[in-house]
Structure formats: structure tokens, C-alpha cells
Fold these 3 entries.
Entry 1:
Amino acid sequence: MKVGILTGGGDCPGLNAVIRAVVRRGDQLGLECMGLREGWRGLYDGGAAFQMRLTRETVSGILHIGGTILGTSRTNPFKKEDGERRVFENMARLNLGALIAIGGEDTLGAAAKFSTKGLNVVGVPKTIDNDLSGTDFTFGFDTAVSIATEAIDRLHSTAESHKRVMVCEVMGRHAGWIAVYSGIAGGADVILVPEIPVNLDEVCGNIQARHSRGKNFSIVVVAEGARIAAGTSTTDSTINAGLDEFGHVRLGGVGAYLAGEIEKRTGFETRVTVLGHIQRGGTPTAHDRVLATRYGVRAAELVAASDFGKMAALRGTEIAAVPLAEAVRELKTVDLRLMELAKTFSG
Ligand code: F6P
């Protein structure tokens, strides 16, 4: 069988490891792989410029390389004129018996919808945000956490030297997994996530309490999607707003706002560092390479077994197959027990 592979949404360390694993396992199982460039755009367009032959040779040497050799986009096929029809037509025209969609909530949301309409599709869970349900972890998350943790470690020494408060803004649109993991790993004094409205009085109170105990610097980790609670103050963290085809705003500004408020309210000199796309770029950690490889192998096996409408998922230590619909039903937000644990180390 010939199988199409696409990578959609924000890129993520480990995408190439998945592609390589699908092709290598697919080769053993008699699958012929074709890459579709730029996510759903590639399948929607279907032209030669959007096709890439994937063989053992073309995927050689990409395991450790960040980004995706297929390119990506936030194209939503259901927002395109005639999108649904063109996707089915191109699948038939390119003689593709199945599709492997590697993506997060948006890419897999579209895959789940196509699955209900009869497309033979299998999903692989990708996002540095780790906010997909149905799987314990997405690949890419571990790399993002490692990068953020290293940044927090580095911020510690400069914060201490200058007796400053350092605000570190990390990614996490709707879920604060990167903030809470890197915050705990990096020993942050305050961790702020989208799941819990930010109470500025509490944040400043914690910092003041810490400084009155003799500490003269503090580290605050904030997820880009964190919201300042009504009643204390509000911020519009959608500065530079713009909507993508899946209706998401482009976030930005919460770290800078927070830094300004902390300095104004506490009198402590405060700086902000926005890690941004550095968290998504570059080589995946060993953990993510292994996870991505396991996902890719399982996805190829699901296709070979004609077990469609599923997503490869990590459940405990096993790679399971869960219904795509389950994976995209709701976002997986931060386990609040982790936030409780983090509180032990705040203030
Ligand atoms: O979805 C992953 C993510 O990295 C989010 O954390 C972030 O809000 C968004 O992508 C940024 O997207 P873009 O690459 O379009 O700036």
C-alpha cells in the first residue's frame, strides 16, 4: 500500500525521527511512503511541488535533526474552498491508500474529522505543549522542557548577581505543561499557568516574603497563555493578535506585563526573557528521539493492519492505539497536583 505522510501545525523536535521510523518500519511491512509537504496544504494542493518520495535513502541521517524535512503549515483543509473534496480526490489521484498525520490538536482534529468521513488515517501526537489527550506525553515536550530548564538555570546566576527578579516567559497557549515542568526542574520561585488565573497580589506577596527572608533575587516562570485575574489587574496577552486558520490568537506580552507590574508593586528591579521559538528549534533530546521513533513504528504498523482512525499514544510505558476522536475531544491541561507540589517551593 502507498501511504502519505504529513506534518502539520507548529514544528517540533522529533518530527524527522517519526518520519524516519514510519519509512523504515513501513519498508519492512511493504508500505511505500510519500511525503506531502507543508501539512494539509500539501494534500489539498496535491501538485508535484508538494510531493516528496520517502525512502530509506531520503530519510537517512535525519533522526537527530530538528524541524521537519516535509515542512509544515497551519493550513486547515476544512477552511479551504472545496477542501474536503480536494483531499479525497488527491488521495485517490496519488494512489494513496492511507495517510499518517503527525500533528497536534489542529492537525489531528482535521484528521479525526476526515476519519469520520471515510479517510484511512492514523495520527501521531506532536506538540511541545503536551496538551493532547489520549497520550501521557507528546514528543517534543521533553526537548522544550530541557531548553526552558537550561534557560532558567542560566537566569539564576544573572538574577543573583544583579539582585533582580527574572520573569521567564515560556510557550503554552492553553496549557502550562512546559511552565510547570521547567519551573519545578529549574527551581522557580513562582510558576504561572493558563489553567489558574494569575493573582498579582499573591505573586508579589510571595516575592516580597522571599526577599524579606534574605533572598535578594527571584525567578518567575510564566506560560504565554497565563491570564491576570480580574479584580487585581487584567492584561491582554493577545498583543500582536492575529488569527490562524484554526482560529487561534497569536499570544505575546504577558511576561513583559508581569515584569512591569512586579517592579512597580514590589520596587524590585525586574527583567523579562521570552524564550519563544527557541523552545521548538534544534535537535530533539534522546528521550524525544526514542518516543518519536516508537510512535512512528506503531503508526506504520497500524496502517499495515488497516487499523485506521487511531493515534499512536503513550500509556504508561506502552505505545497504545487510541481513537483519534478521543485524542482531540478536549485539551489535556496541567495536572493541578503538580501546581500544588510547586507551591512547596514558592515564596
Ligand atoms: O502549538 C505549539 C506552539 O508552540 C504554542 O506553544 C505557541 O503558542 C504556538 O505554537 C506558536 O505558534 P507560531 O509558530 O505560529 O508562532
Note: Residues 10, 104, 127-129, 171-173, 224, 251, 280 surround 6-O-phosphono-beta-D-fructofuranose (CB under 6 Å).
Entry 2:
Amino acid sequence: MVVNRPVLDPALEPIREKVRAGERLTREDGHALYRTRDIFTLGEMADEVRTRWHQRKVFFNVNRHINYSNFCVLRCKFCAFYRPFDKQGAHAEDAYEFSLDEIVTMCREAQEAGASEVHIVGGLHPKLPFSFYTEMCQAIRQTCPNLHIKAFTAIEIVHFTRITKPKLNIREVISALREAGLDSMPGGGAEIFDDRVHDEAYKAKVGEKHWFDVHSTAHELGIPTNATMLYGHIEGIDERLTHMLKLREQQDRDLAAMGVDHADLPGDLENPRGGKAAFNCFIPLSFIPDGSEFGSLPGPTGLDDLRTLAVSRLMLDNFPHIKAFWIMQSPKLAQVSLNWGVDDLDGTVVWYDITKREGQGTNDQNLRVDQLRALIREAGCTPVERDSLYRTVARDADGRLTSDVTTPRS
Ligand code: V47
């Protein structure tokens, strides 16, 4: 629906023309969108693009996040999740690592509760061998054949290349995980693609080159992935826009390898296709300061969250989906964002350890399907239960999955 309310900020007039004509926005346009106080026009433009892609549909999935261990060799200043591994065993009281049996039990429980996806990520554990991760995928695949395994950030994949003996490269590591049952990969670990921010906030972590190497390799292998951006800490607006533009360029290349020209989008985008894949979804992650070394920073405001989600929809014209991860933006703001360009809320989540809203908080972070549906309906949208590849999920009268939710192997 094209709305003809007056644009309060003249700087948005030419951008609105471009958006209506389906033209690509520039970095300068991005700055104008971030600067404007006319957030209603910003929202309308983002909503127009979102509607072109998905009409009034809002996607959610029934999933379970599993954070298999919080031991990590890194010390990222934004992170409250990691616990140092002490060789003498004097670990923090709340340090943990789940056994393979425990992980499989969680997956079985998730499947019994109707989940179509498990989302599995953890810290960079200094001791666990690569076989732990391949056996994890194998055991889940064996026990829960129709549960989509979305697992391991690019940072974990690079870590695995370093712990394999003999050494495996990125392609070999991803291929081994896929062989073991991995279906797709999440978008974590991207943070902000900028050297200054990298060196000040997460110096020991591999940088953008590795992150892109992992994702482009996954795409070449036909494994779809997502991309994130951790915003609202020490980065500036220009760095956020650089981050988005780098992702947009990469997505152009990966779509071209799938035979898709970005100028033809929005359109039907089966992903993977022709044995290749691309990014499915962009997820701006709202920085939660509590408990991290950056704990004294204020974190993003509600308006910054809303604006960042809307700007993402407008700048990333070749990404099919923009997700508000309600765990970080909060269910209330995530609901509002459904009219500001967002078409996906992630899922039921159930348990989450990487961020907690109220200081020490709780890991039980769960939205039921009826709650997700109600949030979406109240925003004037149509809830659609999707699988990890954004196909509509089919269930029988008892709620059991009847569609295949794993990634087709070419
Ligand atoms: O990699 C860490 C970020 C990521 C904090 O792909 C923080 O569908 C905010 O990547 N405040 C993990 N963010 C989460 C993630 C994700 C979540 C949901 C869906 C998908 C997907 C991916 O969270 C980490 C890091 O970038 N993070 N600490 C923090 N204090």
C-alpha cells in the first residue's frame, strides 16, 4: 500500500522516490535515514519494501536455542556469556559444558515439543575436539531425523580449523559438519565489520575476512546462512552502514552464483538453488550491556532499535528477510518493528544464555506459539509458521510436523 502522507523531512523526499522506484540506496541515503526525526516516513518506506517482499506475512518458527558451553578462549568486551577455562579446574560456578547426551536429550525434547529447528552455538572451547561437534550433529540427526540443525557461527568454524588434527581448512570443516547432519548456519560473530571497532572491542576474535570466507564457502557448498550486526556499543552510524554495505555486496555475488540478479528482486528466491546458497536473513542484534566489560555503556534506545531495523530493510534490498530477535529487542519493541520493515521474529527460543535482560537474569526465555501469533496479529500482520528455509510448515491435526524441514542436499 502506497501512503501519501506528507514527508516531514525534505531529505527523505528523494529517498522515498527511490524506494518507490525500487532503486538501490546509497551510504548517503543511509545517513539521511539515520539522521531523520521523521521516523513515520522511515517506517512507511521500510514497510513498503517489506510488503513488496512478503505482503503482510510475519514469519516465526518453533525452535530451541542450545548454547552447548560458555567456556571461551576469547574475551570480547561486549560479551557477558563467556567464562574462562581454568587449567586447574577452578572455573566460575556458572561455567558449564553440556555432554553429547545432554544435547541430544534437549533436541529430543525440542522435537517432542514440536520444534522444527535447533539453533546451536557456544563459546570457543579450548579443549573439546572437533569430533565432539561432528558427533553432536550425527547424534542429533540420528535421534531426530526431521529436526533442522542450524549451528556454529563463522567464529566457531574458524576455531574448528585450528583444532583439527591434521588441520582442515574452512571448506573441509564445513563439509565434514554437513556430512554429519548440519543443515544451515546462523549469522553470529559478525559484530561490526570495521578494524577500529574490532581492535577496541574484540581484538582476539577473527575479523571480517574470516567471517566472509566462512559464509561464502558455506554458500558455495549450498548451505544457507544468516548475517548479524551487533550495534549500539562503540561503533558509529557510518560503521553500521559500512557493515550493511559489505553484506549487500557479498549477497550480490552469492545471488549471482545462484543465477539471481539483485535487480530482479523481490522475487521467488528458493534458497539453496542450483547447489548454491546465499544469506536468508539479516538480524540486527541490539547490544545488551549488562554483565559485560562494556556494562557502563547505555546500549541502544528503543528508537535506535526501530530505526536500525527499518534502515536495514531499506539498505539490504537483496536480503529476503529482516529479523527482530525478540530476545534482544524485547517482545514489545519487536512487535512494533513489524510495521517498520521487519518480517521475522525468530522463534520460541525456550532457553538462551548469551544475553539476559535483567542483569543475572534467567536462561528460561520462551515465547509460546500462541503468544507469537497474538503479537503478530495485533500488529496487523498474518502469522506464518516457517521452517529454517522460510518454507511454510505443515502439521497434522496433532501438531506433528508433516513437511520436511531439513535442507535438501543437491
Ligand atoms: O555472535 C553477544 C551477539 C550473537 C551480546 O542467525 C550480543 O538466525 C547483544 O548470532 N548483546 C549470537 N548481542 C546471537 C546470534 C543470533 C541470534 C538469533 C538468530 C540468529 C540467526 C543469530 O549475539 C553473538 C554476538 O554477536 N552478542 N553478546 C550482547 N551483550
Note: The chain has 14 helices and eleven strands.
Entry 3:
Amino acid sequence: MTDTTTEKTPVTLLGLGTMGTALARAWLTAGHPVTVWNRTPSRAAALAAEGARVARTAAEAVSANPLIVACLLDDTSVEEVLTDTTLTDKDVVNLTTTTPAQARTRAKWAHERGARYLDGGIMAVPAMIGAPESGGYVLYSGSGPLFEQHRPTLAVPAGTRYVGEDPGHAALHDVALLSAMYGMFAGAAHAFALLRKEDIDPTTFAPLLADWLSAMAPAVHRTADQLRTGDYTKGVVSTLAMQVAGTPTFLATARDQGVSPELLTPYFTLMHRRLTEATGEEDLTGVIDLLLRSEPTA
Ligand code: NDP
């Protein structure tokens, strides 16, 4: 079945945690026939009342429809759930968060069982599912034709971003984006800590912080261009030398405010190291090269 027909593609959804439930509800609301299965059956009750068909076993759920969406805890649970199902000629879309390596292995595993496979990384929280205005989306990688075939159905719960044939690339983009988010949260934690002992209302500082982070975020486009061209001095706004010279101010302020610099120092250490190896006229982009290791670490 393809999405070009007027019929809404039936969907089987394995896993009714908070995310799986939100996904199932979005498809139900849009009029798709939905078959659900969850290890703990009671979690399916609300969806059953909303029109979902509840399968007694994962095998029964998989046999119900050609399109199978898994949204389980981790890769181990995906293998456990799918092992005793018949995947021949099924279209498996795995939205479970995994590593890129696990996604590639799971794709091979699914292909060996006769299935087509797409991997997904959900860039949204459950409240953003079925709410297009929230900006949430799902990254997909794996079979391009499979993505194109099911794109209209996959676009129902959230926006879609296809990032290529390598089934590991959705997970890689997912982890890369979330890693950047943690860096941002780390910076915000340090900023709030600096103010903590002062008579400054954090709620008056927060808008300044949010606006500043938003204003700085587009700098990643310059970084990307420098990485692509290999010229780390291209379009530099604040040189590495100038920024390294400024680091004592940040460390002294942290000390004076009684704040540990432990979130800042790893980055500053890399900036200093790069300055010893390259021209101070560079941007901060050279730090990225210092992070690369020849072999994956344990
Ligand atoms: P929950 O913890 O709410 O639900 C986990 C689901 O996995 C439940 O359905 C649970 O079943 C099932 N499960 C766990 N272990 C097994 C197992 N061994 N066998 C069968 N089923 C199992 O997680 P979420 O729904 O929030 O997340 C699901 C996936 O979505 C995760 O990979 C998560 O990283 C990803 N995600 C979640 C986001 C969020 O904000 N929630 C955001 C982006 C991605 P049971 O009910 O029986 O315990």
C-alpha cells in the first residue's frame, strides 16, 4: 500500500511509553487505522477507547499491517520485541533512540529478516507530537524509496528530515544535535551560577540569556563554511588570540563569585592548545580538529 491512495495507511505501533502513545494518538486523530502493542497491556487502554486496535502480542501487531513503527526504550528492547515476529515484506520504521552503530546493525538485522528499514531520531518531546506549530521533527535515514513512500504518513506526528541512505545517520544527527544542546545547557548553568549569590532575579536574567544564545547560534554557519573550505580564518569576527586573551577574565570572575570553572575549563584548555599550534588569526573552529581521534575510544 502507498500513501498516494486516498486511504489512510494503517500503522502498527510497538511501544506505548509517553512518546509511543503520543505518536499513536497523532495517527489516530488523523484518521489512520492504528494497531498498538505494549509489553504492559494496561498502557493501551486509553488508546483503545480512542479507536486503536490492541494486539495481544507483538507478533500479532506486526502481522496486522505492512508499516511497523517501533518506539521502545532502547535497541535491546527492539530486538527482544521483534525477535519472535515475522518481518518478511514489512516496512520497519524504528524511532527508538540508539547509537549510529546500533542503527546500522539493526538495519542489517531487519534486512536479513526480509524487511525494509528506516531509522529515526525524534527531535521533539511528546507534547510536540501532533502539534506542527511546535517545530518538532523526526530525522530519518535508511532506504530513500521507503522514506518517500511513507513520507505523508510519517509527517503526521511531526515534521520529517531525511538525512541519507546510511541507516546510522539519523541517530548520528540526533546525538550531535543533543550534544550541542548539552553544551548550551552547560553554559547556561555556569551563567546562572555566577549570579546565584547576588541579588539578581534569575527570571529577569533568563530573557537576556535566551536572546543572547539565539543571537550567537547563527555563528555555526560560519563554522560550517570554515570546515567546508578548510580556511579557519575566513570571515573571522573574534580571533582565537583575542578570545584566549580573554579567558583569565572569565576564570577570575568565576573565582570571585565562588563558582567552579569546571564547565568552562575543558573548552578553554582546547582553545589554548590550538593557539600553540595554529595562527591566532583563526576562529575557534580549530578546536574541532583537536577533538578528533584516529580510533573510536572505548
Ligand atoms: P518510556 O520510558 O515512557 O517507555 C518505554 C517503552 O519501552 C514502554 O512502552 C516500555 O514498555 C517499553 N519497553 C522497555 N523495555 C522493554 C522490553 N524489554 N520489552 C518490551 N518493551 C519494553 O519512553 P518514551 O516513550 O519516552 O521513549 C521511547 C523512545 O523514544 C526512547 O528511545 C526515547 O529515547 C525516545 N524519545 C523520547 C523522548 C521523550 O521526550 N519522551 C524524546 C525523543 C526521543 P512498558 O510500558 O511495558 O514498560
Note: The chain has a mean pLDDT of 96.
